[in-house]
Write a structure and sequence with these properties.
CATH superfamily: NAD(P)-binding Rossmann-like Domain
Strand content: 15-25%
Structural class: alpha/beta
Length: 209
């Protein structure tokens, strides 16, 4: 089957981002996979047809300068950090809200076919939890954006996989996951830990082909 789609990925070096790139490189429907990155990317991080991979180093504070890339068929945004990593709430909001929101606006302006990003289980614009409130506010902003017809968010719970950075709280939760996951049923099933590869697959399934 000839490749008929191209993809743009923001956040390619994260846990889900790497899994996503691997799946896109192995997907015959895609002829090119472009990644916008803060720093140079080594193709050896990925497997599959890396000739399809086009890494571009950009300044995320000036995404408007790279708006031409947002005319890709499918936009995938896997950007995300933690308040601890970012250093402050405002720095966290810049990555998890502002960058993603600007990406959605550029996707609309460049008439991308569809736009999928990573949110979080429990995202709620009215939440008392800052992290969940930011995620919820972003969902409301993007889903309420006219002209971006095929936008969708995935809402994963705890992500399973090998992270390059050490997060003690998450590491403990992952070790305990086999013991508490069986009890997460019905309405609680959405809180089950999920492999990064499965989240990536969900993102691809949500795109408009």
């Amino acid at each position: 089957m000839p490749a008929t789609f191209d993809a743009l990925v923001l956040g390619a070096t994260g846990l889900v981002g790497q899994a996503l790139i691997n799946q896109l490189l192995g997907d015959e429907r895609y002829g090119q996979v472009t990644c916008l990155l803060r720093r140079p990317l080594h193709a050896r991080m990925f497997r599959g047809d890396t000739q399809k991979l086009q890494p571009i180093v950009v300044d995320f504070d000036r995404l408007d300068d790279y708006q031409g890339y947002f005319g890709a068929s499918h936009i995938y945004v896997c950007l995300g950090t933690t308040i601890k990593q970012a250093g402050s709430r405002s720095a966290f909001r810049k990555v998890d809200y502002e960058y993603v929101h600007v990406a959605a606006q550029l996707a609309r302006a460049q008439r991308a076919k569809s736009f999928v990003w990573i949110s979080s289980v429990g995202a709620d614009a009215k939440s008392s939890n800052f992290y969940l409130r930011v995620k919820g506010e972003l969902e409301s902003a993007i889903m309420g954006m006219s002209g971006l017809d095929h936008a969708a968010a995935v809402r994963p719970s705890l992500l399973l996989g090998q992270r390059p950075d050490h997060r003690p709280g998450e590491a403990l939760a992952i070790r305990l996951a086999p013991y508490y996951s069986p009890f997460l049923r019905g309405r609680l099933a959405k809180y089950k830990p999920i492999a990064a590869e499965n989240v990536a697959a969900q993102m691809i399934a949500l795109q408009h082909f």
